[in-house]
Amino acid sequence: MPDSATVAKLRAAWPNVPIISFTSSLEALSVSCDQSSKPSEPKDEKTYRDSLSAQDTGKCRNCGKIAPLLCNGCKGLPAARGNSTIAARYCTKECQKQDWTVHKNDCKAAKTRQLLYRVADLTKGLFYIHSEITFSWAYLKKIDCYGPLRAVYTDEVKSERRNTLLVPFSTVTDLVSDRKEQEAYLSHLGCSGAVARFGPLLAARLRGNLQLIEEIIVTPKNHNLSIVKGQKEVDNRPVFRKDGLYHTILRVTLASQEQYAVDLTGAQYGHAEECLPWEDYVTARVDQIIEVQPVGTSKKWLAEQIDPVRLMQWSMKLNFLNEMEICIGFWEVHGGSIDALLALPEKQWLAKKESLLEYVKTFMKHLKEDSIRQGSWCRE
């Protein structure tokens, strides 16, 4: 969390950007992530009585009897494979205590798993905000839908002049009202940039629970949605150009040796889940693994682009990412640490996460407007 001197410098740097206080709405952010993530011997409050239905015949992990109790430490947390959740059942509190030496590692692994899913969810939300602020599809003219296919047309005359411009405004929200569709366009052909800019943020939030993070280039399959560039129309029939044969994702190996795929831009293929167990992801979405790269490879590649327009875009987007991190620092000053946010109970986590994202979005919009007024954006 930034100290008062850092906050004063940040306020001096951006005097025209209003700082929204979330202090009153974030009083619940008093949970310590370190304390909540350490398993301890279960006490009475670590179990709760579950209402049993006629079909509920869960068995005790310790003795095999019908079990009306669930471990409250990992209840409802994601399982290592599939879409199921953890449900460690016990017939009595005594059985739970006897099994604790066996179960505690699974309980800790489930909490780490939940942390990864939440960090990936929050990182994807920040990615969409950044993409919307820096959206760079110049002169988007129309979007046609053909089932799961989306044909995107731009103004070719104006686009030819794009090499001298950075266009500061997005028109995707004007042409598309559905939020899932907007996310598809905001993430289209943005996988390398997402990995380069937001991979380090994800890794930083997983510190202490992360063994390895890698960049994986794949050819995707099983698209629920496909976005193509509509080059022209002949006899009222579209002619398409398909882009993006390769897709870059992150492979995260936790300290428990469990591996997960984090796909921040899967929406461009119609996939909503940003984090899946690695084997599940490969089975469902990967046709072929092309290359495994050290984390940071995409960032280095983007920074070495010789095209001046790409260099300007990369620099501009990186600057806005830096300001986004400053914004998150402001939020932490008023509302508590991100670590505390990630450790909240589910309902509080969802509410406070949305508060954070709304705060960042408002801040970044003001920042963009301030940058345009100062002439920081090239305009036509």
List keywords for this structure.
single chain, globular, alpha+beta, 12 strands, 380 residues, four-stranded mixed β-sheet, five-stranded antiparallel β-sheet
Description:
The chain is 43% helix and 18% strand. The protein is of the alpha+beta class. The chain has a domain of 93 residues. The strands form three sheets. A five-stranded antiparallel β-sheet has the order 11-10-9-6-12. It has a four-stranded mixed β-sheet with strand order 4-5-7-8. β7 and β8 form a beta hairpin. α10 crosses α12. Keywords: Metal-binding, Zinc, Zinc-finger. It comes from Heterodermia speciosa. It holds the Pfam family zf-MYND.
Sheet-strand content, in percent, reads 15-25%
Poorly predicted residue ranges: 16-56, 157-170
Percent of residues in helices: 40-55%
Main sheet?
5 strands, antiparallel
Give the class from helix and strand content and strand pairing. alpha+beta
Across the major sheet, the strand order is 11-10-9-6-12
Pfam families: zf-MYND
GO molecular function, one term: zinc ion binding
Keywords: Metal-binding, Zinc, Zinc-finger
Protein name: MYND-type domain-containing protein
